[in-house]
Every structure is written in C-alpha cells, then in structure tokens.
Write a structure and sequence with these properties.
The chain has strands spanning 20-22, 50-57, 60-63, 71-77, 82-88, 94-102, 105-111, 120-125, 128-134, 140-141, 145-148, 152-156, 161-167, 178-184, 191-199, 202-208, 212-218, 222-228. By secondary structure, the chain is mostly beta strands.
Length: 233
C-alpha cells in the first residue's frame, strides 16, 4: 500500500521530556490551557464501546495497549493550528500518516489491519486532542450510500459491487487534500485492494469486493454509493 505522507512544518515549540504514555491514561503537557476551544466535527460510529481513551494538549507519544489487534481510532483535535498524527512501527519510526491538517478536525482511522502493526502514535498539535479506541464492530455499516467529512471506516456486508467514490478536496490544504481508499478483510486480518489514491477533488467508479472493511483517508468531505454487480446504473 502507498500511504499519504507529507513533509513536516517547523514546530515553534516542543515539550521537553514528553515520553510515551499509556493509552488507557490521561496526559497533558505543561502550560496554560487555551482560552477558547474550537469545536471539531462530531464523530459517528456504530455505537461500539470505547476500549481506551487518552487526551492531551500539545505534542505527545502514546502507546496503545491493544497490541496487534485491529482497532478503530477516533481522533479529535480542537486546536487552531497544525495537527499531525503518525503511526509508528516497532522501531518507533513513522510507518503511516493518519492525520495531517490544520484547525479543528475529527476523523476515524483503521490500524493493525495489515502487515504494519502500530506500536505507538506520535501526535503533534498546538492544542487539545483526544484519541478513542473502539473495536471493528464500531465500523458503520455501508447501506447503499454514505457521506463523511473526513477519514472513516465503513463496513460493506453485501457481495461484489460497484462503488462510485467522490471527494471534494479541501481548500485549507495547499495540495487540495488527499483521498486514499483501501479495503480489508471483514475481520481486519489483511489488506485486499486499493480503490483510490488521489490528490485534490476526484470522482470515479471502482470495483468493491464483499464483504469487507473500507478505510478511506481524507482531509475533506467524501462520499460513496454502492450498487450490486449487474444492478441498474
């Protein structure tokens, strides 16, 4: 798979001595809390229980306690500036970039569903953020059509189908925003196919295997419409 990876912007401040913290706890960096918090979009899941939660304010490294089990990460940022989340591999190097954006933001990410187990998350932020871990049962069932505001994880329970994908891009990103859509085994046991990998606004029709998990990474709105193979166009 090819993951979206962008160059880092210079950070004006890093918190010294910010080592890993357990994801089941709560950690905050030193310094005054922001006077005004901007609201991030609400996350929509299937209602599965939150297995772990961690909140912070600023740059941190957190270690999930779920090991190599496939899970969904609900990521929310309330700061006004830059926000980056990298998934780190066993050697604590960036193996994939889950978030790269500015301002208030909320998305859901799928990790450990391929041959890239995530050991930790490196979070670079200028304000408050939260990460919530849920199981794969929290993937929203794709019932013909879905619209999302950013990265999300959906579950396709039907058979082979055709999917119309559309992303509008985002003006707050210098490159117009990215859109990367992959499908995985329903139980998260492996990668199946890549449906899209584009920068800026894009739309197209792609084959969709089923059943499967669909993980779309996007820093802007996107939608999907599914119809069975042989169904009306």
């Amino acid at each position: 798979m090819k993951w979206p990876m962008r160059d880092r912007r210079p950070r004006t401040q890093e918190v010294p001595g910010a080592g890993p913290v357990a994801l089941s706890g709560v950690a905050k960096t030193a310094g005054p809390a922001p006077v005004v918090l901007s609201a991030a979009p609400a996350l929509l899941g299937a209602g599965g229980p939150v297995l772990q939660r961690v909140s912070g304010d600023g740059s941190r490294v957190v270690e999930p306690a779920t090991g190599a089990e496939p899970v969904i990460l609900g990521i929310t940022h309330h700061g006004p500036g830059h926000f980056v989340v990298d998934a780190l591999d066993g050697r604590m190097r960036s193996g994939s970039q889950l978030v790269y954006t500015d301002g208030p933001f909320a998305c859901r990410a799928l990790v450990n569903a391929d041959d890239r187990p995530v050991r930790a998350l490196r979070i670079q932020a200028d304000g408050p953020w939260t990460v919530e871990v849920t199981g794969l049962a929290d993937a929203v069932v794709l019932d013909g059509h879905a619209e999302r505001e950013a990265s999300d994880v959906l579950r396709h329970e039907g058979g082979p189908a055709l999917a119309q994908l559309r992303c509008t891009g985002t003006p707050r990103s210098a490159d117009g925003g990215y859109f990367l859509a992959d499908v995985f085994e329903p139980d998260g046991s492996g990668f199946l196919d890549q449906l899209a990998n584009h920068v800026g606004p894009w739309s197209g029709e792609v084959p969709l295997s089923g059943p499967c998990l669909l993980y779309a990474r996007s820093d802007g709105p996107w939608s999907i419409t599914v119809r069975p193979v042989g169904g009306p166009a």
